[in-house]
Prior knowledge:
By secondary structure, the protein is of the alpha+beta class.
Amino acid sequence: MGFRSWLRERFSRRSRKRTAADTRIAPRAEIAPGLPADEWEEVPAYLPVDPAEHMPACIIASAIAAGAYEHSKLVVRRVSVANPEHRRVAVIATALGAGALDKSAFSVKRIYKKKEQKGMGSKHAA
């Protein structure tokens, strides 16, 4: 066993999982440093559409996808609409970030909002 093999074994994901399992203490899950996951909920990027409204969306999507191939087959598994709350928060966050760095590009991966606590009626997203 060489030095590189020892390093690979020592710092691999599998060995980290083993050491975490050996401690038998479950660490508190965090979405970011200092923000426990049990106090926050994820805001979905897309919301499901009412099944009664699926047909027009499916017909339009099929017509666009088929194009000149009239013998093609398209299966629509799910129809969703963009969540306006998610879009609004993403636009604000990227605008604030772009204000500091002029020539930059951002990608919003997840948006969380604080869960409602007893006596608190706030629904702010973060």
